[in-house]
Design a protein that fits this description.
With about 100 residues, the chain is an alpha+beta fold. It has a single domain, classed as Nucleic acid-binding proteins (OB fold (Dihydrolipoamide Acetyltransferase, E2P)), CATH 2.40.50. Helices cover about 25% and strands about 40% of the residues. It is globular and about 30 Å long.
Length: about 100
């Protein structure tokens, strides 16, 4: 039941954020290695590292979703669907790469 609730929460967030960006979503694959929820009251940051290229991405995540993103996916291979405004990358959804 908790997993279904999280999927609904992520889908609701994705549907709310998508219209704010004119660009298509981007899909980032890598390992979630870092989380910080102390910088801003509305947004936290997670960092994703691509294993092959070691490219790092900082992704802004709403504080309401930080626990749902970090707890089950920390140090896991994931695919994050995100949006960019040209400066920042904003979280849209997350899935395990093994799913």
């Amino acid at each position: 039941m908790k997993e279904l609730s999280e999927k609904v929460t992520f889908q609701r967030h994705f549907n709310q954020i998508k219209p704010q960006f004119e660009s298509e979503p981007i899909h980032l694959k890598g390992i979630l290695i870092y989380a910080d929820s102390t910088n801003n009251s509305r947004l936290g940051i997670v960092k994703l590292v691509e294993p092959d290229t070691h490219q790092k991405y900082s992704i802004l995540v709403p504080m309401t979703l930080m626990k749902s993103v970090v707890r089950p996916y920390y140090e896991e291979n994931v695919i994050i669907t995100a949006f960019s405004d040209g400066k920042e990358i904003y979280f849209g959804a997350i899935n395990s790469e093994n799913a």
